[in-house]
Amino acid sequence: MVIFVRLFVVQIVQGNSLQRKAIDQWTRELPVIAKRGEITDRNGVVLASSGGTYSIYGRIRSIKDKTATAKVLSQVLDMDEESLIKKFNSKVSEVTVKVNCSKEEIQKLKQYDLDGIYFSVCNKRVYPYNDALCQILGYTTNDGSGQSGLEKYYDKYLKGMNGEILYESDLVGVDLSGKDPYYVKATNGLNLQLTIDFDVQSACDSVMEEAMEKYTPKSASVIVLDPNNGEILGISTKPDFSLNEVPRDDLTVLNKLSRSTLIVDSYEPGSTFKIITSAINIEEYLKGNPKAFSTTHIFSSSRFRYVGGTKIKCWSTHANGKHANENLAEALNNSCNPIFVDIALSLGKSTFYDYLKKFSFGLSTGIDYSGEAIGMLVSESVVTDNDLARIGFGQTIAVTPLQLVSAVASVINGGKYYVPHLAKKIYNDELKVSEEFENKVKGITIGEQTSKILNGYLEDVVTVGSGKNAYIKGYKVAGKTGTAQKYENGFIAQGKYVMSFVGFFPSDKPEYLALVIVDEPVGGNYGSTVSAPLCKEIFEKIIKVKNIKAKTEKL
């Protein structure tokens, strides 16, 4: 009875398990590594590729002359001949001869046509431009899986599917005579084409590097996009790191340098936010809202506004009549805080917050990138008049740079809020497109007339106002400066500022929109003197590389 039970367990209960083990014993596999897909810019410039190295294997039973084979391998691969002979005389089915071999070594070996020697492509990731787009592209694990950035976000497309070569063997791993191997072909990963224009990207990288050298800030960042479709053309943050030498041994450094702060961090935008407040006011005025101010309305020239018992002042001393008798266009030129306090309070929190939601503040933009922050927006139910007043000129609100530039894009393009995106299409090695990412309109923020009016105002900011350091003769550049205070432990940090400038051209039909941010520059006091000239330099490089001809200036 005991014997019967034992046989039942072995044959019935353990049968499937033992059968699987037997199959494992009867077959030996040689990996066939799938090539990870390439990542390119919109014009086909390769930003990430794979397949630069190879691994070599020996199928012992198929090696006819072990000594001669070892001799050739030792010479070509610079390996110890005796060690190779020892490997070939071992009691296993196959052995790994060498990993991370070069293409040149493989080509030399092919000349000898060695029996029993095979090779497979290794999935080593190579980034031709080292640090370019390092925070955006991200990097892979040692086994070739996406670990961060777009490498991770689009991993399911890029990674492919490994194949294998199966050899039938006996229970001790010796090949069965006359049995042909079974080959499972690898399926290479698909390729990813980005919206990035490498010419624009190069301009961004070089100017931000200059900013780091000139001002020694904590960081210097820029994002350039096409305001007519949300496609990101260039995005750069310094300091950065080389993707070919990822600092994995220091996670603190890696986490700091690999953050795309333009997407995953938020900041107080300061005066660049006055573009949004102006757009809301003009739109409401054109709709007939009596609480909105006309474009010809003259605001009080007082330097101060008292809100809820708190004194809010302009950055300027208003000396010598400066900022006196201002309309909205002049308030943008001078970046006069009290005017935007008046607008926000007059419109009221309900109307103002309706527009903030349309502009996606406090919400995700929907970009194809993991870890996007949503900023900080005081809940409408608890916002005070003092809060609302300060939001009007870019305080008491935190936004991501991506949120701000996407919102401004809708202001200058006629009111369409496009979802910002980095991917353009997915395609295979035969160039067959498997998925194309369409430009998506998330919503409408303002009307075309408002957009046209404000574009003219912002051109004046560059021509005669605070943004004149972004002026380029012969080109209709527009924009707005910003200088935001930083806070530490709930208090204003003395002498610490974030300098910014959002600019675009041509002002009458925008094609390029840029936001430049410099965090705590040394030797610079305002966005007008730090960030505006940097934006100008980026635009000049784009103009040169794209051969954009000068047009008649505004009369």
Describe, in short, the structure shown.
This protein is α+β, with helices and mostly antiparallel strands. Helix content is 33%, strand content 23%.
Percent of sequence in beta strands: 15-25%
Q: Low-confidence segments, ≥5 residues, pLDDT <50?
A: 1-28
Terminal CA distance: 107 Å
Integer average pLDDT: 88
Shape summary: elongated
In the sheet with the most strands, the strands line up as: 7-3-2-10-18-19
Indicate the CATH topology of the largest domain: Beta-lactamase
Write the CATH homologous superfamily of the largest domain. DD-peptidase/beta-lactamase superfamily
- CATH architecture label of the largest domain: 3-Layer(aba) Sandwich
Number of strands: 23
Task: Explain this structure.
There is one protein chain. The model is unreliable at 1-28 (pLDDT under 50). Helices cover 33% and strands 23% of the residues. It is elongated, with a radius of gyration of 31 Å. A hairpin with a 5-residue loop joins strand 18 (423-427) and strand 19 (433-436). The chain has 555 residues and is of the alpha+beta class. It has two domains: 31-51 and 120-194, Penicillin-binding protein 2a (Domain 2), CATH 3.90.1310.10; 198-421 and 439-545, 3-Layer(aba) Sandwich (Beta-lactamase), CATH 3.40.710.10. The strands form seven sheets. It has a six-stranded mixed β-sheet with strand order 7-3-2-10-18-19, with no helix packed on it.
